[in-house]
Amino acid sequence: MTKYDYDLFVIGAGSGGVRAARIAANYGARVAVAEEYRVGGTCVIRGCVPKKLFVYASHFADEFEESAGFGWTVEGARFDWKTLISNKDKEIDRLNGIYIRNLQNAGVEIIESRATVVDAHKVRLEATGREVTAERILIAVGATPFLPEIPGIEHAITSNEAFHLEELPKRVVVVGGGYIAVEFAGIFNGLGAKTMQLYRGPLFMRGFDDDLRALLAEEMAKKGVDLRMDADIKSIDKAGGELRLTLTNGDVVKADAVMYATGRVPNTKGLGLEAVGVKLGKNGEVIVDEYSQTSVPSIYAVGDVTDRANLTPVAIREGHAFADTVYGGRKVMVDHSIIPTAVFSQPELGTVGLTETLARARCAEIDLYKTTFRAMKNTLSGSQERTFMKLIVDAKTDKVLGVHLMGPGSGELIQAVGIAVTMGATKAQFDMTIAVHPTAAEELVTLREKWQPPAAKAAD
User: Fold this and answer.
1) Same domain, 217 and 345
2) Is there a single domain that holds both residue 313 and residue 194?
3) Whether the Cβ atoms of residue 303 and residue 322 lie closer than 8 Å to each other
4) Are 188 and 195 in contact (CB under 8 A)?
5) Helix axes 15-26, 81-105, angle to 10 degrees
6) Helices 81-105 and 48-66: crossing angle, nearest 10°?
7) Are residues 270 and 200 in the same domain?
8) Would residue 133 count as lying in a domain?
């Protein structure tokens, strides 16, 4: 018999923690998971799953309007926020139950309590004060929304609260320039709220390809989102049931709700990690090696709490790799260099591999292939939304370094394209692939003419 209560104790039952616990248990480990809120974590309970449901809801207004071009007449359509919230809650409850059953079926003990680290092999269950021991401890507590320290910040909400608003605000200001900000700006705008998005930099979606960033801004503005770049909030005042936002340039904006999506910080505060010798980064992230091991050999960490690549599928992969390495008898590292990802903005983005800026910095010469067009559906619907596709190719090796998409279904497309890019496909292999017609995706295998800047074309 082991001298510990458990072989593995997982703190946090989000995507990464649940996967690690379940796989470790399948390998025969005695596993417990402590979760202070609900099993499923940010993604399932208050993140990507409910957000995607909201995105679907926000598309229907355009769908109803555009259906006229195809001969449909839609009369009396109306939106009810409370119905959406109620049905979303039912679905989250269903998924929460599935996560619980999957853990229980694997033999994992679920403990409903916040847990903190006492030493390298001991945790405290804050709900009861009981201390338990484990040969290994896995930190999988994720991250929490960041709010700046400005006057009146208590009147703001984050995406956490946005999923539970009693009424749909008529006027919304979204602050931020990443995934969550552009997605919620599209959601609120699509559901009929007058929506403004503020970003403190010159152009949002930092880290994405510059063409995608610029074109997304154009399309969002066309849809009615009031985009304000180089703008931020100085203070928030509440009077007479409305919010008055004083911007850093002196402008005053009135709103019914202001939602901050200005990043997330690792949820390590008060966890006891530093006291036991676990090294943390400047933002509180847990520093780990390629096998997710911390500076304390018996303590590991996966997911957003490590601030490596804050995406649910990455956390799941890290959790699985941890279990394979420690309990499965084979060392597995997660490759963070090529990560396909989607942004459910309106229009949708899909991207994998290097941006043009990074490719130019790493390669002596690159070739670009770009196209923009109205999708076939838009010819009858009357929508002016543009689809955009871009391939970045190493001119020397012909290897496809990056693929960047904007338009309907980009998230679905990039998953398949991500396989090719991860395998190291060349542009010639893209060209050899027979097109599926008529689709927007066929453009990815029919692009032949290298893109040249307008000045170069004029010179030719």
Assistant:
1) no
2) no
3) no
4) yes
5) 20
6) 140
7) no
8) yes
Residues 269 and 256 in one domain: no
pLDDT digits (tens, 9 = 90+) for 312-368: 999 999 999 999 999 999 999 999 999 999 999 999 999 999 999 999 999 999 999
Q: Is 437 noted as a catalytic residue in this protein?
A: yes
Number of residues written out for the chain: 460
121, 320, 404, 437: the catalytic one is 437
* CA proximity to 123, closest of 22, 232, 8: 8
Token pair, residue 57, equals: 């809801």
**Residue 1's pLDDT band (boundaries 50, 70, 90)?**
low
In a domain, 335, yes or no: no
Residue 333 lies in a domain: no
Domain boundary among 327, 357, 379: 327
Domain that holds residue 404: 341-459
Tokens of 149: 């320290």
Q: Are 298 and 278 in contact (CB under 8 A)?
A: no
Question: Are both 135 and 175 inside the same structural domain?
Answer: no
Q: Mean pLDDT across the stretch 389-410?
A: 97
DSSP for 364-433 reads S-EEEEEEEE--HHHHHH---PPEEEEEEEETTT-BEEEEEEESTTHHHHHHHHHHHHHTT-BHHHHHHS
Residues 136 and 269 in one domain: yes
232 domain-assigned:
yes
Tokens of 424: 């190291």
Kind plus residue range of the DSSP H or E element containing 125: strand 122-125
Report, as an integer, the average pLDDT of 43-63. Answer: 92
216-237 burial, b for 16+ CB within 10 Å, e for fewer? Answer: bbebbeebebebbeebbbeebe
Hey, how many other C-beta atoms are within 10 angstroms of the C-beta on 200? 16
Which CATH number do you get for residue 285?
Answer: 3.50.50.60
